[in-house]
Amino acid sequence: MKIQSGKYRGFIKISNEIGQFQMLALDQRNSIEKMVKDVKGSVDPEDLVRIKRSILKNLSDKVTAVLVDGEYGFPQNLRYVSRNSGIILSAEKSGYSIDPSHPSDRLSSLYREGVASIAKDAGLDAVKLLIYWSENSSDSTKSHQMKIVEELGRECEREDILYILEILTYNVSGTRSDAILKALETFSEGKYKVDLFKVEPIVTDAKDNLRSEDIYRTTRGKPWVVLSEGMDAEKFAEILDLNCRIGASGFLAGRAIWKKVVSSVDDTEEMDLHLKHTGTYNLNLIKHSSEKAVPFFNVPYFGGFENIEII
Question: Total structural domains in the chain?
Answer without folding.
Answer: 1
